Every structure is written in structure tokens, then in C-alpha cells.
Amino acid sequence: MSTYAALSVGLGLGAVLLTLDSGAFHLRWEFPALRGAAERIALCVTAGVTVLALGWLYRLLFSPLELLRTPDEVGYIAEDGRAMARAANEARRRRKVGELPPVYPNGWYRVLDSHMLARGEVKNVYILGQQLAVFRGHDGIAYVLDAYCPHLGANLAVGGRVLGNCIECPFHGWQYRGSDGKCEKIPYAEKVPDFAQVRSWPSCEVNQQVLVWFHCDGSEPEWSVPEEQEITNGHWVYRGRTEHFINCHIQEIPENGADIAHLDHLHTPGILSGVDLRYTNSKTWDFVRHDWKVEWEPEPEPNSHCSQMLVNHSLTVFGCHWPLLDLHVVARQVGPGVVFLKFDHSFLGRGIMMHCVTPVEPLLQCVTHTMFYQANIPAVVPKFILKAESIQFERDVMIWNNKTYIPKPLLVKEDSAVRRHRRWFSQFYSENSPRLQYQRDTLDF
């Protein structure tokens, strides 16, 4: 229930109460001091505030947390009264890009969450520099096709209809099968040409997410995304999602897992100090400190496309260690775009956060954190973990949005995991992997 809806219900309830005859109530007490307009105003305000409070309490205890950031909302500093959007555009335009690796590694990428795509619904999605039509057939399967009809270029996802397990072009009614992209029907033609086809993307639906496989050479999937049985059987339920858009190369984001030194400097200040790096080390909130013990290692064959980061977190308040908030996390990365962060706590329960990085454009990444947690644990617990994670993550966003990629960084011995991570990540690039093509600004008008 939105704030405005709750307020409307409350005021409406108050108005209804005011229209009732006071004789209809057999109350054991009276309020002789409340008369006339003051009584009516007080009753309306009380009813409205009560409904708002109940709505807030319901959202806190039962509703999933949905925190969706826009591309210019986080990670920039707007000075001298400028709008945040202007500050973001200037930072993107002026930043030194650097010598970049290929922009789209081979692997699985999240397209959307399963609950976002109803049976018979089609979505227009832009990822990996491509416009895609994502739809769910009447068989319940999610299909992913190139969005543009090869006939005359209409976007299948903008006005297109799902008919059976096909999608119908809104322009001339051509129908394409979701399974292979073949044109099945042209309503005004005697025969459908054998070559009438739109590209079909390899896709899967697992852990309540729809994912697509990208390979620059069109090769078939080389590994699968592991299924979490607790999500499939409903023991772990959906507790919320955060979404951020980050202006950086995709490799910068998973590389953070191997950059162990940054944790002590960037993430030690408590979450109460916020996300603006100008103020996170303020003495006001210095009494809350996070402590991190981290290890990163690639996995051996046959899971060489995976790596693991082991995290042990502890919290101190006024110098006192709070063991109740000690947290052990295993972050397992599968390919370039999917990470499983598993939580296991003796008191707070168990769950998993799906951390997914999907390239939208060469230097724009969509990052989502989707939380699934034990159904018998109050929703406020995983929602707090998700919110705390988003605060720590947004500190990284301010770094990523303003940094440059250095292909040959100056590293010390303690940074050896960064070098090993870059070697590990390079397996997701091929000879034909696309690279950033850009042209410097000129004075042409």
C-alpha cells in the first residue's frame, strides 16, 4: 500500500465515521471537550495516521524490500547547485576511459526476475547492446528473441502479442516461435520462406530468474547456472531486490572480490555513516566499526569458470565485539555475471543473495541483489541484511563511477589476489570478443 493510498483510506475512514449518528454507538465514555470542527479534524488525522502506521508496519514485517536506483542517483557529487543528472553526465563525459578489455565477456547474464514476466506477457529489454523481446509462452516457458522483425524492422516487444508459444509482430502479424525463432505464419502469404527467422538466444530459468547465454562466436553454453534447491522447493522465499546502474567496465565489479585491501579502508566505517565517501569517516559514527577477514581463490577443473570469496564479518560498537552479528558468507562466482552469496548464522538463519551483473552497454552495468531467505525467519532480518549490503555497495559505486581502468596497475605483494583474479577472468574473453569503439568529441556542430 502506497503512502498516498494509505492516507486516502485513513481520511475516508474518518469521513465515514463523521457521517454516522453518534447515537449509534454505545460507548462507556464520552469526550465532551471535543466538539465541532476540531473533533472532526482530530478524528480524520487520527484515522489517517493509524492507517499509515499500520501500512508502514505491514511493509516492514511482510513486504519485500524493493530499492531500485536510477543511473544518476548514486555515485556522483553534485556541487554548486547542479542537478545530479548533470553531474553524472559530466563525470561520464570527462572521465579517462583507459585501455579496456573486451566489453562483453562470454557467459550467462540475468535478464529479469521470473515474477516480472507473467504467462502471455512480453517485455522489451535492452542488454549487451542488443534490443531483446522476452516473453512467456502459454506453456509457461520464457523465451528470448532479437526484438527486431526481419521483415521491415518493427520491434516485436512493443505492441507484439503472445499467441501460444509464438510472438506476433505488431506491424504485419508475422508470428515467430519462441523455441527457435522460426517464422510460423504470415497471415497474407501463401507460404512462409524457410529462411524467415529471428535470432533465438539460449536461455534458462533457474532460481526464479531468467538468464541468457552470450558468446561472441555464437557457441552453445559451456556451463550451466547451479540450481539452489532451497529456492526451488520454497524453503527460501523472496525477500527483496536492489538494482543499481554503474558506469564502469564489467570486470571492475567482480574484481572487488579479490581486492581485499579495499575492505578495511572503504567498508570498515559503520553503515550509519552513509554512502558519501566525503563523510563516511566522520567521527560522529566512529563508534561503529566493521571488521573483515577475506580470502579469494579460483576453483579447479571442472569448475574453472567459478571462484570463491570467503568472508568473515564482525562488528564492534564502542570497541566491544558483538558476537551475535558475526556473519560468515561464501560468495561463489559462476562466470562473469552471476554470484551466489550464501549466509549461514546460528541465530539469524540461512539464505542467499543473488548478485548479478549484466552489461547494458559497454560502460554501463545493471547490478541486482536479489534476496531469498528462510521462510520461518521474520522478513525484517533479510531486509536489514539487504539494506546494509546496499549501503556498503553504494560506496563502491561512487568509486566505480569515477575511476579509470588501469590495464597494468601498480601492485604490491599484498595485492597478489588482484593479479590472479585478472588471469582467471580473462578466460571469458575470446579473440572475437567485442571491444569498445568510440570517437573523441570534436568541435563539429
Please tell me about this protein's structure.
The protein has 445 residues and is of the alpha+beta class. 22% of the residues lie in helices and 29% in strands. It contains eight helices and 19 strands. It has helices at 3-19, 36-61, 84-94, 229-232, 252-255, 261-266, 380-400, 416-425, and strands at residues 65-68, 107-113, 122-127, 130-136, 142-146, 161-163, 166-168, 175-177, 183-185, 203-206, 209-214, 236-246, 288-298, 306-317, 320-321, 327-334, 338-345, 349-361, 364-374. Strands 1, 12, 13, 14, 15, 16, 17, 18 and 19 form a nine-stranded mixed beta sheet that branches. A hairpin with a 3-residue loop joins strand 16 (327-334) and strand 17. Helix 1 (3-19) runs antiparallel to helix 2. The longest helix is centred in the N-terminal third of the chain and has 26 residues, at 36-61. The two termini are 50 Å apart. Residues 13-29 and 439-445 have low confidence and may be disordered.
Defining key terms:
445 residues, alpha+beta, 4-stranded antiparallel sheet, 8 helices, 29% strand, disordered C terminus
Report how far the terminal alpha carbons are from each other.
50 Å
Number of strands: 19
Which geometry do the CA atoms define? globular
Give start-end ranges of low-pLDDT stretches: 13-29, 439-445
What is the C-alpha radius of gyration, as a whole number of Å? Answer: 26 Å
Specify the helix fraction band. 10-25%
Mean pLDDT: 89
The helix-and-strand class reads: alpha+beta
Largest sheet: 9 strands, mixed
| Helix/strand order, N-terminal first | HHEHEEEEEEEEEEHEHHEEEEEEEHH
Q: How large is the count of helical segments?
A: 8
Strand content: 25-35%
